[in-house]
């Protein structure tokens, strides 16, 4: 496929719009009626941490984790499913409070 200058401008507009959307969509709370899909992230209210799905280098496994939002090199500080990675990007995270616990389910 040949990429023209016009396509490039469009690409930039698209990336720009996507980054705005990402900022405005950033949530810091997940309620029991919401799910977080692979590709979506949550950002702590002070902007320090981001939670979402990631794959370590050289791996296709998907993990749910938390990393520093402000450090350019992704530095994961917590992994939810270290022992039970997902093998594709169909995962979702949900929270429930049906017991005395708040359960985070990754499926
Ligand atoms: C993703 O993996 C899950 C669990 O192995 C499986 O049930 C599901 O069908 C897979 N989805 C796709 C799109 O491959
Ligand atoms: C679970 O959350 C719902 C909605 O916030 C609330 O109405 C309900 O009382 C909670 N249940 C428990 C067991 O905490
Ligand atoms: C949530 O986790 C607790 C502790 O492991 C468990 O007892 C409870 O059954 C779980 N609740 C649900 C709805 O899975």
Attribute tags:
1 helix, 7 strands, alpha+beta, 107 residues, 20% helix, binds 2-acetamido-2-deoxy-beta-D-glucopyranose, 3-stranded antiparallel beta sheet, 4-stranded antiparallel beta sheet
Characterize this entry briefly.
Keywords: Glycoprotein, Signal. Residues 27-107 form the Bulb-type lectin domain. This protein has one helix at residues 5-25, and strands at residues 35-37, 42-43, 49-54, 63-68, 76-79, 92-96, 103-106.
What's the alpha carbon Rg, rounded to whole Å? 16 Å
Distance between the amino and carboxyl termini: 37 Å
How many helix segments? 1
Low-confidence stretches: 10-24
Give a short account of the largest sheet. Answer: 4 strands, antiparallel
Helix proportion: 10-25%
Which oligomerization state do the chains in this entry correspond to?
A: single chain
In words, what does this structure look like?
Residues 27-107 form the Bulb-type lectin domain. It comes from Abeliophyllum distichum. InterPro entries: Bulb-type_lectin_dom, Bulb-type_lectin_dom_sf. Residues 1-26 form the signal peptide. This is G-type lectin S-receptor-like serine/threonine-protein kinase. With 107 residues, this protein is an alpha+beta fold. It has one domain. The chain has one helix and seven strands. It has one helix spanning 5-25; strands at 35-37, 42-43, 49-54, 63-68, 76-79, 92-96, 103-106. The strands form two sheets. A four-stranded antiparallel sheet has the order 2-3-4-5, with no helix packed on it. Strands 1-6-7 form a three-stranded antiparallel sheet, with no helix packed on it. The model is unreliable at 10-24 (pLDDT under 50). Bound molecules: 2-acetamido-2-deoxy-beta-D-glucopyranose (3 copies).
């Amino acid at each position: 496929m040949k990429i023209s200058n016009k396509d490039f401008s469009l690409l930039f507009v698209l990336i720009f719009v996507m980054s705005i959307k990402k900022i405005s969509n950033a949530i810091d709370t997940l309620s029991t009626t919401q799910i977080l899909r692979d590709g979506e992230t949550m950002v702590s209210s002070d902007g320090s941490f981001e939670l979402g799905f990631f794959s370590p280098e050289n791996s296709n496994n998907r993990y749910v984790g938390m990393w520093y939002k402000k450090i350019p090199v992704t530095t994961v500080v917590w992994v939810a499913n270290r022992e039970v990675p997902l093998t594709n990007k169909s995962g979702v995270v949900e929270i429930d409070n049906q017991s005395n616990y708040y359960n985070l389910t990754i499926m």
